[in-house]
Amino acid sequence: MRSTPIAVLFALGIRDCRDTSSTAADRPDPSPPASVGAEPAPAKRDAGPVRMEALDPAEDPPLFVMRGGPRGPAPIVFLHGMCGHGLGYAQAFQFSAARKGLLMAPQGDVKCGRGPWAKWSGDVNALHARIESGFRALGVSALEDVLVIGYSQGATRAEQLARKWPERYTRLILMGAPQATSARGLERLRGAVMMAGERDRKDLMKTGTRALTAAGVPAVFQIIPEATHGAMGPVPEKTMGEALDWLWANQRER
Fold first, then answer.
1. pTM score of the predicted model
2. Which end of the chain is more exposed for a tag (fewer CB within 10 A), N or C?
3. Residue ranges per domain, the chain?
């Protein structure tokens, strides 16, 4: 039986610390931090079981990538929320992600305090460049048809990537975004899943679902069971596996 990452165990019991005022996007998101206490293992050859590790242990901010297999062919990116950490989140659903493709989780480029937690600057060009460089290092020569998964502040960055490079970032899973998603600039998406915690605000993600559907984008709203803002709930592999399966079953042809 696979052991559950410590980071995931922490995430399951985390309290909801979100400010539900209009400035919620500027507040830290609770996130699974436990995996960040140890030094990342040196990058290994792409063999062995599915796992997440730093592409380059000396790189700051780190870029966490999937190693091992088996895995599918699709490039997948996860963007954490404000003052979060990508490794624990990626570990929470790494096996579901591997069934579809190769998962990458860049760490935010602005540290919160002394770190290791971080948030995202507004430099979406730099984020795009990091993603491209990381996939090239993993042997993906032509980056296309990327699925971007974003939580809270990460959801806003995911939307920005899809609007600016619609030919690259063609699918979205947005979780707990701080504002309702507009379909403007996202009409070419192949598909989208909007998600919110069962104990989090849901109206914004439902509004975004309706907007995308009206624009002709296959879209659905899904609950993250028992989750507060920033949490993945008690069964993240199952929850994310269902979201990924829906997207693959309902997405439009390119």
1. 0.85
2. N
3. 26-32+45-250
**Beta strands 219-224 and 146-151, pairing class:** unpaired
Strands 101-106 and 118-119: unpaired
Please say whether the beta carbons of 158 and 149 come within 8 A: yes
Instruction: Kindly list the distances between the CA atom of residue 79 and the CA atoms of 173, 202, 211, in Å, as whole numbers in the listed order.
Output: 10, 20, 22
Do residues 103 and 135 touch, judged by C-beta distance below 8 A? Answer: no
Distances (CA, A) of 86 to 36, 52, 58, 149, 254: 9, 10, 17, 11, 29
Q: Where are the alpha helices (DSSP H) in the chain?
A: 6-12, 86-92, 94-100, 124-137, 153-164, 203-214, 236-250
Chain segment 56-109, per-residue pLDDT in tens:
999 999 999 999 999 999 999 999 999 999 999 999 999 999 999 999 999 999
User: Is 30 within 8 Å of 230 (Cβ atoms)?
Assistant: yes
Q: Could you tell me the two tokens for 171?
A: 């699918």
Question: Which CATH code of 3.40.50.2300, 3.40.50.1820, 3.40.50.620, 1.10.3210.10 fits the domain covering 26-32+45-250?
Answer: 3.40.50.1820
* Alpha carbon distance 115, 122 (integer Å): 19
